[in-house]
Amino acid sequence: MSLRFSGWDVIYDENQPSGQLGATQQPTNCGIYTMYHGTSVASARLIIANGFKQSQRGMLGKGVYVSRDQTKAERYPLNNPASDRVVLELLVRVGRVKRINKDKHPLQYTWNEEGYDTAWVPPNCGMKAVPSGLEEDCVFDPKNIKVVAIAKAPAAVLQELQQLVATHLRDPAADGAIHVCPLCMREVRAGSHVTQACWSCNQDICIFMPRHVCRRV
Prior knowledge:
Elements: E1 2-7, E2 18-19, E3 32-39, H1 41-50, E4 64-66, H2 70-73, E5 86-93, E6 97-99, E7 118-121, E8 136-139, E9 145-152, H3 155-170, E10 195-197, E11 204-206, E12 211-216
Parallel strand pairs: 2-3, 6-7
Antiparallel strand pairs: 1-12, 3-5, 4-8, 5-9, 7-8, 10-11
């Protein structure tokens, strides 16, 4: 198999930070970041199809619990075998972020009532509820979370779940405040991205893709 490369560099002029952020870095207000959520196979199917639902309780109160550390998401659900664990890759709009870095923090359960959209527990902050010391986030509004890929899943269901995600991303009527282009995996803020067939390999490409590799036998 030979590879023929055709691509381009794109400079994004955006008002909001986005993309990958290390687990030790503090999220910026209004940013959109890649995060992860660990769940069961059955729950993964429901989340992909219908979106997340708020947990009614937890160490940070109501919200959806996610992490920028994939290794943490891979531990969940805690009592499930590896054959029933799926890690969903997400795009998360964090909105206004409150740092919760100690036990009995005055806003530990009431941060949303004070106007914050996400609570952030930094790594190794010493909170007893996080014995692993790994980073964690609680996003109050599930509509600020979008499943964009399967980061890890049992081989028996991986292809099925990937297809479910791809189908949902192509659905213009899909629920969620974040709309993602299925080709470049970037947020679509108005209308839709321009797509076309590659002149060489005929694959669909988006003008916002930073690169494209033609695979020809």
